[in-house]
Write a structure and sequence with these properties.
Elements: H1 2-25, H2 41-76, H3 79-108, H4 116-124, H5 136-155, H6 169-189, E1 195-196, E2 199-200, H7 204-220, H8 228-241, H9 244-251, H10 262-289, H11 295-322, H12 329-351
Antiparallel strand pairs: 1-2
Helix pairs in contact: 1-2, 1-10, 1-11, 1-12, 2-5, 2-7, 2-10, 3-4, 3-5, 3-11, 6-7, 6-10, 8-10, 9-10, 11-12
Length: 361
């Protein structure tokens, strides 16, 4: 168990850093992240491809890791205590971000001058500009967790650890195809960028699959039985399929974000194929090369969730500082990503030492 926790915790740290670089890239694309600083068309396209690859797998991977440990956490506590713990650890960060951090980020990007209190009173307290930002993850994870608790209470069975082989590549390929088709159908009504109560419905099928795949993996010890052959096959799948999305957008017309068109279908099918390859590759690499711990790893792991909560203020702050400076967008992206990561982890290591606060984050 300890060995497994080490490398899975390290993957979580890596994914958290990737989230920071993901959001550091967004201002230099057509998407934006609270603020836009797009200048170069080629650079924007490169960063948008980087963002698309991240979006295909990294949040799903977070849900997988969360699902992996959910059954064991549930077994250690009575259901009411488990739910209370999740409400504290996930619900409070959502509220803190909604009513403290998000207003600060939005105020930083305002062009019209007004006092923070006036902005807060007229925009936040009236619920006109409530914005979950990246903390939507905690909201959705809380919903998934409650669904799991209700399921466990309904079946009234204790957790039985089973050891079954990891699914073969054919089964994974079929799952990827079904997920792609389901995602395409969902995006006919809810395209990428359409949010409901902080949830981007376009990615919900993937998040659901990864979360419950994580639960199954934990119960059946899948991570101990992943074959090297399966991992290699899916890494090659990522390498081969990865470049196909930009090529398809060049040779076909339509909105890849959703709707009944070829780019939307290609995008929906492309995501799970590369997501499975990246996730399996990362699991194998971290298990082989990062299956150990140290003071630094422990510090980073302990602070990762706090970094996830606070990083928008820092990333947006550095982006605004560089907005008026004549630097290439890729250099700005690198500076914001590196400085934002270092600053976020430094602040987070202080926050997690605060009494009472450290029981939540």
């Amino acid at each position: 168990m300890n060995n497994r926790i080490y490398y899975l915790d390290h993957i979580r740290v890596f994914l958290t850093i990737l989230v920071l670089f993901h959001h550091a890239a967004l201002p230099f694309t057509q998407i934006g992240f609270y603020v836009s600083d797009m200048e170069n068309g080629t650079t924007s396209s490169l960063l948008e491809f980087f963002v698309a690859i991240n979006q295909a797998f990294f949040m799903g991977f977070f849900f997988f890791l969360s699902g992996y440990f959910t059954p064991l956490s549930f077994e250690r506590k009575v259901p009411s205590q488990f739910v209370k713990d999740r409400l504290l650890r996930l619900g409070i960060p959502v509220l803190v971000y909604l009513f403290i951090l998000s207003p600060i980020v939005q105020f930083m990007t305002l062009t019209n001058k007004q006092s923070f209190w006036m902005f807060y009173k007229t925009e936040i307290l009236t619920f006109q500009r409530l914005d979950l930002g990246p903390i939507w993850f905690a909201e959705v994870l809380l919903i998934f967790t409650i669904i799991y608790v209700l399921y466990r209470l309904l079946i009234k069975k204790s957790l039985i650890i089973e050891s079954k082989p990891f699914p073969p590549s054919k089964a994974l390929f079929l799952t990827a195809l079904l997920l792609g088709i389901c995602t395409f159908l969902v995006r006919l009504a809810f395209p990428v960028g359409f949010w409901i109560i902080g949830i981007q419905i376009a990615y919900l099928p993937s998040y659901l699959l990864f979360f419950f795949a994580g639960i199954t993996a934990g119960r059946q010890n899948w991570l101990q039985t992943v074959s090297r052959k399966t991992t290699k096959q899916w890494v090659w799948c990522f390498v081969i399929v990865g470049p196909l999305l930009p090529l398809s957008l060049i040779f076909s017309k339509g909105n890849p974000m959703g709707g009944f068109n070829i780019p939307a279908f290609t995008y929906a099918m492309w995501e799970p194929l590369i997501a499975f390859g990246i996730c399996l590759g990362m699991l194998a690499w971290f298990k082989k090369y990062a299956n150990h711990t140290s003071t630094l790893w422990k510090t980073l792991s302990r602070s990762a969730f706090t970094v996830y909560i606070i990083h928008p203020i820092i990333i947006v702050g550095y982006t605004l500082l560089l907005a008026g400076i004549a630097l290439h967008p890729l250099l700005k992206f690198a500076i914001v990503g590196i400085a934002g990561t270092v600053t976020s982890f430094f602040i987070a290591t202080v926050i997690v030492k605060i009494p009472f606060v450290n029981k939540i984050v």
